Amino acid sequence: MPLDLTGLSKTYAKDGSGFRLFPLDLTIEKGEFFCLLGPSGCGKTTVLRLIGGFETPTSGTITLNQENITHLPPNKRNLHTVFQRYALFPHLSIFENVAFSLRLKKVAKAEIEERVVQALRLVQIEDLRDRRTDQISGGQSQRVALARALVDRPEVLLLDEPLSALDPELRIKMREELKALCKKVGLTFVMVTHDQEEALQLSDRMAVMRDGQCLQVGTPKAIYEDPIDPFVARFIGQVNEITGDLIGDGPETYALQSALGTFKIKKNGHPLSKSINLILRPEKMRLLRQRSQLQENLIEGSICDLTYLGSRTEYSVKVKDKTFKVFEQELERLKKRKLNVGDNIYLTWRTEDAILLNHPNS
Amino acid sequence: MDLKRGVSMRRSNPLVATIFFIVLLFLYAPLGYLILQTFLNNPNDLQSGFTLNWIIKLFHSPSVWDPLITSLEIGILSASLALIVGTLGAVGLVDFAAFLPAAVQSLIMLPILLPEVITGLSLLLFFLLLKVELGFTTVVIAHASFSASFVYFIMLEQLKKLDPQMAEAAEDLGATSNQIFWRVTMPNIIPGMMGGWLLAFTLSFDDFLISFFTSGAGLTTLPLKIYSLMRIGITPELNGLSFLMICISTFLVLVLVSKEQSRKWVLKG
Fold first, then answer.
1. Among A38, A33, A67, which Cα is nearest to A159's?
2. How far, in Å, are A262, A268, A275, A281 from residue A258 at the CA level?
3. Residues of chain B contacting residue A135, judged by C-beta atoms under 8 Å apart
4. Which of A137, A209, A211, A234 could be disulfide-bonded to A38 (CB atoms 3.0-4.6 Å)?
5. Residue A17, class by beta-carbon neighbours within 10 Å (0-12 exposed, 13-18 middle, 19+ buried)?
6. Under an 8 Å CB criterion, which residues of A touch B?
7. What domains lie within chain B, and their CATH numbers?
8. Ordered domains of chain A (ranges, CATH)
9. Dmax of chain B from CA atoms?
10. pLDDT tens across A95-123, in order?
11. DSSP secondary structure, A276-309, as one string
12. Chain B residues with CB inside 8 Å of A84's CB?
């Protein structure tokens, strides 16, 4: 039973100036962990507030389980929001915070006790039940907010940058817990975040947004490995870009002519324009000491910086006026090869690892 | 609290400390002299020795007790009325306050800024127009009408401090707007309401001019009593009464401060 957004749009100013959310079509499956990812001001929070009922859409519909909820007020929608700053009720104990929605529904006392304890146990804060909201830490407040939203078993949980207020160590721990929680309770989670790592780790599927538009929807793997837009490629992970023109036409490969040389590229099914962005992930590139006849794509350059990170080394390689990022894993066979700053090397990659995108201006 | 921090931070500077004590002296010397007089055998002779006679006498004179009780009654009723009016006004206007033109906002402040003589006179004329008999009720209404704007501003600040997401969270969890008010907004502004009530009570208890205009013949509040005694001449009884008022006002200030203090202690756990 999915959550369906059809042609959902929002314009704030009557004359269309200022921020606007362009019509959005999105289907979020039951039990799915779905992330809305994008830089600030991209409209991701607007989408969440539209689903939550805190904003009225300019056009379009929202359906939950085939029921049109577009014009229902927030208190009539069977979904709850975990707010960015948690918005706990300071006059109530932790127990009463969690019990809030059940008390409104006039649930029997014994059942409230049972369900609140169950919800507190789910987020591992049973022992905090009698504390006040100002006697608990940020991470604990986060758990209370989760328990409060989960206790009356909504269909969908909306999370507005829930981890952004936590310190980095705790944020990473809570990521794992959130993911586990989603699978455990079997609810649909829709989370807004600007942290691409968070989105990659948590999402079953995600949507990347920019300037009020949804650019791409897909699994983290699909979005990372097959971005449809240079912005998406740059936003998710690091990239090296080579801009050039498409030349030649072999049965399976083209060639790309650029200021750095001519490179082989592979047809990927997408229609390509004349002007092309060749995008290379730093971990898909290799460094060679010597020119090799076996390699198809080679660029000569020199190492201008390197950072040893244990599991990998990050190199910056200067090629003419461009700097390439290359991440190499510390493999046994590379141990003997000592690379230092200033060394002349060759950059290479496998033709099928390159991502081809039409240049945005073409 | 800010003042305290400021003083302790600059404690090392003797000049600032000296100025601070001169200011204190400037503010409190006249009050101190009045209190001192209350305990002198002959109020106008500093050498005449100390006594509690005047205070004891005060407690046995019914002409003092009646105005005191009247003042307390008026204070309690008008503060309660002002609290209701001011709070309702603030709750109703808080979402719009930011959009209200500055002119409208200053209109709400007018009763605070106007000279009390004008406020008193306008209330008197208004009561005469409505043909209301001057007395207890008119004083209560008059006091409430000017202290309501103080309560309004206290409550507006209190409401602005509330996290707007809190009301959204309540609505999200199924609360209707009525339930949001009673279950979330109200409990969180009670400290402000207590402060507002105490302030309104203090304003009413201390007020002379507005009571003077709207009390009519038979009614005497404590400040009115002091004024009428003074027309006869400065008597020890007058000193005693003033001392009594100082005590009550100080007590109210202490209650206000300790309420703030205890709230902080509770917050600290």
1. A33
2. 6, 20, 10, 18
3. 269
4. A209
5. exposed
6. 52-54, 73-75, 80-81, 83-85, 87-92, 100-101, 104-105, 132, 134-135, 148-149, 152
7. 2-54 (no CATH), 62-268 (1.10.3720.10)
8. 3-232 (3.40.50.300), 238-358 (2.40.50.100)
9. 74
10. 999 999 999 999 999 999 999 999 999 99
11. EEEEE-GGGEEEESS--TT-S-EEEEEEEEEEE-
12. 165
Residue A200, Cβ neighbours under 10 Å: how many?
18
Give ipTM to 2 decimals.
0.82
Q: How far is residue A219 from each of residues A124, A189, B74, measured CA to CA in Å?
A: 30, 15, 71
The residue among A226, A214, A281 whose CA lies nearest residue A34 is A214
How far is Cα A166 from Cα A182, in angstroms, rounded to an integer?
19
Among residues A104, A244, A87, A161, which one has the least CA distance to residue B175?
A104
Contact B171 A134 (CB under 8 A): no
Listed range (A324-338, B58-72, B78-92) with the worst mean pLDDT: A324-338
Contact B163 A87 (CB under 8 A): yes
Average pLDDT, chain A: 89
Strand A188-193, strand A33-37: pairing: parallel
Q: Do B166 and A80 touch (CB under 8 A)?
A: no
Q: pTM here?
A: 0.78
Q: Are A81 and B187 inside 8 Å of each other by CB?
A: no
**What are the pLDDT digits (tens) for A65-84?**
989 999 999 999 999 999 98
Please check whether residue A136 is in contact with residue A123, taking contact to mean a CB–CB distance below 8 angstroms: no
pLDDT of residue B263: 61
Q: Do residue A152 and residue B174 have CB atoms under 8 angstroms apart?
A: yes
B187/A91 Cβ within 8 A: yes
Q: What percent of chain A has pLDDT over 90?
A: 60
B88-118 confidence digits (pLDDT tens) = 988 888 877 777 777 777 777 787 888 889 9
> Coil, helix or strand for A79?
strand
| Mean pLDDT value of segment B223-251 | 83
- Give the residue from chain B lying closest to A158, CA to CA: B172
Choose among A83, A91, A152: nearest Cβ to B169: A83
Structure tokens at A296: 């198809």
Estimate to the nearest angstrom the gap between the alpha carbon of B32 and the chain centroid: 21
Query: How many pairs of residues across A and B have Cβ atoms under 8 Å apart?
Result: 63
Q: How many CA atoms lie within 13 A of B126 on its CB side?
A: 12
Return the structure tokens found at B90. Answer: 């603030």
- B172–A74 CB contact, under 8 Å: yes
| Cα A193 from Cα B268, distance rounded (Å) | 33
Q: For residue B262, what pLDDT band results from cuts at 50, 70 and 90?
A: low
- 3-state secondary structure at position B250: helix
Alpha-carbon distance values, B136 to B71, B216, B217, B236 (Å): 10, 9, 10, 28
Q: Rounded CA gap, A51 and A267, in Å?
A: 40
Q: Give Cα A118 to chain centroid, integer Å.
A: 30
d(C-alpha A122, C-alpha A117), whole Å: 9
B74 confidence band (pLDDT: 50, 70, 90)? very high
Residue of A210, A198, A152, A151 whose CA lies nearest to A360: A210
d(CA B221, CA B225): 6
Which chain A residues touch B179 with a CB distance below 8 Å? Answer: 104
